[in-house]
Amino acid sequence: MIRPTNNSKPPLLELSSLEISRTISLARILLIVGLVFLHYLKFPNSSVWPYTGLDLNEHSVATFVNSAIFLFFLSVVPLLSLISGWLFFSFGNNDPMRTIFARIRRRFTSLYLPLVFWNGVFMVILYAIYKTNPHYPLLGDLNMDFSTAGWKQYINGIFGLTRRPISLQFWFVRDLFVTALVSPLLLLMSRRAPWLGAAALCTAWICGWSMVIFLRPDVPFFFYLGALVHLKQLPVTISRKTTMAVAAVFVAIVCVRAFAPLAVDFSGNIMPTWLRITTSLMRLVGVVACWGMLQHMAQTPRGTRIGGKYGGLAFFLHCAHWPLLAFLKIWLWPLMPAQTDLWMLVHDFSCVILTIIIGLGFGILLNRYAPAAFALMNGGRLLGQTKAKEQIK
């Protein structure tokens, strides 16, 4: 608790364990829903990626909205990584190395085994599609070409050893597992040179250096920040007033960033370094804004119900949402009456909402009728057994 001075405002209470538990449960599912929105990517009739911004030549309204949504949810991975680091390092001082190695072993079951299982299933499905229809639209969006792939590509497609697995969302799970593997080094760094270590990882993140073993540097950086927040006992409470102010600033930044093509030349699909760096830094504001909003939403009756009912399905939805989302984009696009901005946005939201409904529904049915299969696909967890202090997946 923060004690007020004589002329200070009422004190800001730290979150209780129950309130943190509720926030994490809500964060699990809502952040993964945000990831589904992010992975809609570009419209079928547009060549402009949402990371660039709006399309100045056509469908400016739809591409602006899609870009703004995409840029807003770029903060999902940093916040999930930060929470993961906070939870991973939530232990006492009694033999921390032993605790860390025990948690690494558990992460093999809860992260890496599901990665291998899901990508093996997706590999079979997508290869079957390739053999029956080699020109199917989805195949062109994969990070491997079945017509030329060798054994190394297939191994990486399933195991993600040196490249992203075939299902795009599993790069995050892969990097989260690798970060857990190097967590003893992170613990040592947090004790010997905590802020120098943070500065080094931040530099790697800003420069886009994957440090050889990672696919992207944002996961280890924010994971380490989460570890520092816990180890240094830094406050995690954000007042409602501050949350509203930071959220408003973040939304304004996102909108301005989505308008970037009005002032920045993207010819040759090259993004200026300064814009890439500022876009990365924008995500720091998003982490604060999203955590604050989740923190306050989680303490409401509705937020508590959503987190309690669906938080345990977050990892399953993360695993299942792609390529399901990509299939829905292909199947629903011909059903749109016209290729106008309005119907493009209808397509966007329809695909995302259907993906969420199907993914959650399938998970609930599996948990009820095939719990062993659900546990394997959900990292060893059955619904009702997920605890708030588990690592966010």
Question: How would you describe what is shown here?
Answer:
The protein is mostly helical and 393 residues long. The protein has one domain (18-377). Helices cover 64% and strands 0% of the residues. The chain has helices spanning 17-38, 60-72, 76-88, 96-132, 151-159, 170-181, 183-192, 194-207, 218-231, 240-258, 273-297, 301-310, 314-332, 341-369, 371-377.
What is the strand and helix layout of this fold?
Blueprint: H1 17-38, H2 60-72, H3 76-88, H4 96-132, H5 151-159, H6 170-181, H7 183-192, H8 194-207, H9 218-231, H10 240-258, H11 273-297, H12 301-310, H13 314-332, H14 341-369, H15 371-377
Helix pairs in contact: 1-3, 1-11, 1-12, 1-13, 2-10, 2-14, 3-9, 4-5, 4-6, 7-8, 8-9, 10-11, 13-14, 14-15
Descriptive keywords:
disordered C terminus; mainly alpha; 393 residues; disordered N terminus
* Element string (H = helix, E = strand): HHHHHHHHHHHHHHH
SS summary, helix count: 15
- Summed up, the domain count is 1
Tell the overall outline: globular
Determine the structural class based on helices, strands and strand pairing.
mainly alpha
Query: In percent, how helical is the residue content?
Result: 55-70%
The end-to-end distance, rounded to whole angstroms, is 30 Å
User: Spans of 5+ residues with little confidence (pLDDT < 50)?
Assistant: 1-12, 386-393
The percentage of residues in β strands lies in under 5%
Give the beta-strand count. 0
Largest sheet: none
